[in-house]
Amino acid sequence: MFIELLDGLRCVNDHPQIPLVTAITKRDDRFVVEATIGCPTCRREYPIRRGTAWFGSAAQDDVTPSQAGPDDDDGATRIGAFLAVSDGMTIALVGGWAVHARALSEMAGLRAFAMNPQRAIVESERVGVVHSDNRLPFTDGSLRGVAIDESGWSIREMELASRALSSGGRMVAPASVAVPGDIEEIARDESVWIGEKRGALVALHRR
Ligand SMILES: [Zn+2]
Fold first, then answer.
1. Which of 23, 84, 92, 197 could cross-link to 165 by cystine, CB 3.0-4.6 Å?
2. 113 and 178 co-located in one domain
C-alpha cells in the first residue's frame, strides 16, 4: 500500500471516525509491505500483509486470487464513464470492478482502491488493495465514486457505503441492489443503476 493511500483508510466499526495509527514493520521505499493498522477508538487492529490491507472477517489464506490478467481497457472506460471520473479524484472499485483499478487510474489520473478483488491486482502509487467484506473502510465523504459488486449488499450496507461518498459523488451498483436514501438514481439498465449522492442542505453563512 502506497503510504499516502493509508490516510484514506478508516475503522469499519460503528463509531465516529478518527485517523488510524499504523505500525510499519516492513516497507519498500514509500510502499508499506507489512504493518498493523490500529483504531485508537475501539482498539481493533487490521493487518497489512504483502501490501494488502485486511479489514474484513476473511482470513488472508481464504482468499487466493488468480494471477493478474491483462487489463481490459473497454471495461475500465465503461466504469469510468459510469462514475464520471476525472483527474485527481479517489474512487473505490469493489469485487468484479476492482480489476479495472490499474487501467482506470492510469487513464484518468485518479486514485483507486481495489476492494475485495477477484484476482490479483498489482498495486501502485495510485492503486491500493483492501479486503473488507461489504463495508467500505474509507473516510466519510472522501470518495468521488464507488462501484458496488454482486456480493449481496443489504440496504443497511449500502447506506453505510454511501457515507464514503462526497456530495455529488457517483455510485454504481447491480440493478438487484436497493438504492440508498441519500443517493439519487440517474440511470438504470437491466444490469446496473447509476446514482449521485445528494448534497447536504447547508445554511448559508458569512465568514
Ligand atoms: Zn474502531
1. 197
2. yes
Shared domain check, 98 and 11: no
Domain assignment of residue 118, yes or no = yes
- Give yes or no for residue 62 having a pLDDT over 60: no
35 with 116, same domain? Answer: no
pLDDT tens per residue, range 110-119: 999 999 999 8
**pLDDT tens per residue, range 146-205:** 999 999 999 999 999 999 999 999 999 999 999 999 999 999 999 999 999 998 766 667
Q: Per residue, what are the HEC states of 67-116?
A: CCCCCCHHHHHHHHHHCCCCCCCEEEEEHHHHHHHHHHHHHHCCEEEEEC
Kindly state whether residues 29 and 81 are assigned to the same domain. Answer: no
Query: From the CA of 45, how far away is ligand 1's center (Å)?
Result: 8
Residues 94 and 128 in one domain: yes
Q: 43 C-alpha vs ligand 1 centroid, how far in Å? A: 6
CA distances 1 to 6, 57, 101, 102, 185, Å, are 7, 20, 14, 14, 33
pTM over 0.85: yes
